[in-house]
Design brief:
About 10% of the residues lie in helices and about 60% in strands. By secondary structure, the chain is mostly beta strands. The chain has a single domain, classed as Porin (Beta Barrel). The strands form two sheets. An eight-stranded antiparallel barrel has the order 1-2-3-4-5-9-10-11. A hairpin with a 2-residue loop joins strand 9 and strand 10.
């Protein structure tokens, strides 16, 4: 909670500074789509092989002009991140009565849903074209993890080996392997670092409508620190592609 308060204070201080400066300052809202992915994972079978999922992104945006081409953009946003793995994959054996540090294997759907509050600070270069502007920007961000859920679904026979020759449970009547349900929502926030820092940047287009602005923004972000607290659970970096539309007014 203290990090959220700090982010609000930084945004409020920036707005106060902008109003007392000679540069033009605008404030607005935006919303769009995140396409996040958990990258890395190394040799840890619990954390590699993730693909992208979809998440929401929305919040406040501010822009302080330094001159006719350069400005500073600061956003305050909710960002849905994470990744998913579907199909045959490893799981922690200790979660099903096995030995800690070893793996079982099964076929199921596995989605990590990570929701952050983020504060990106970017330097923006704009190229005016009549009443509009094309721009590129680059900077850094700080993020605070609000909640983290692992959503699993499907049913599968669980094996003690990757070759699927050693099922861990058999039907006592038929002697055939028994399938296990993976339908569950699991809170995993205690296993993850709350803070995330990284680099961000992108391109965009601003169209002036009277004194207001319509903004199309395409941005990428990459977290520099591992999201897991313990390397035994993996070593993933968070990243995403974000496409959003915004509306801003001068103050």
């Amino acid at each position: 909670m203290k990090w959220i308060i700090m982010l609000f204070l930084i945004t409020a201080t920036t707005a106060s500074f902008a109003q007392s400066s000679s540069g033009k300052f605008s404030l607005g809202i935006f919303g769009g789509l995140n396409i996040p992915k958990l990258s890395g994972g190394g040799d840890n079978e619990l954390s590699n092989g993730y693909s992208s999922r979809f998440g929401a992104a929305f919040g406040l945006t501010s822009n302080l002009e330094l001159n006719s081409k350069f400005s500073v953009r600061i956003d305050f946003l909710y960002s849905g991140e994470g990744g998913k793995r579907d199909g045959f994959q490893a799981l922690d054996a200790s979660s099903m009565g096995g030995q800690a540090g070893s793996y079982f294997y099964a076929t199921f759907n596995n989605e990590s849903i990570l929701n952050y509050i983020e504060l990106p600070v970017l330097l923006k270069y704009s190229l005016p074209v009549q009443s509009s502007k094309f721009y590129v920007d680059f900077g850094a961000f700080a993020g605070y993890l609000l909640n983290a859920t692992q959503k699993t679904s499907g049913s599968s026979v669980v094996y003690a080996d990757k070759g699927q020759s050693m099922p861990i449970s058999l039907n006592p009547l038929t002697g055939q392997p028994m399938a296990v349900s993976f339908d569950a929502y699991t809170d995993i926030i205690s296993k993850l670092n709350r803070m995330n820092f990284g680099l961000t940047g992108g391109i965009g287009y601003t169209m002036c409508v009277g004194k207001s602005q319509l903004i199309l923004d395409i941005r990428g972000a990459y977290g520099l620190n591992y999201i897991q607290k313990d390397a035994a659970n993996g070593q993933n970096h968070n990243g995403y592609l974000q496409v959003s539309l915004g509306y801003a007014v001068p103050l």
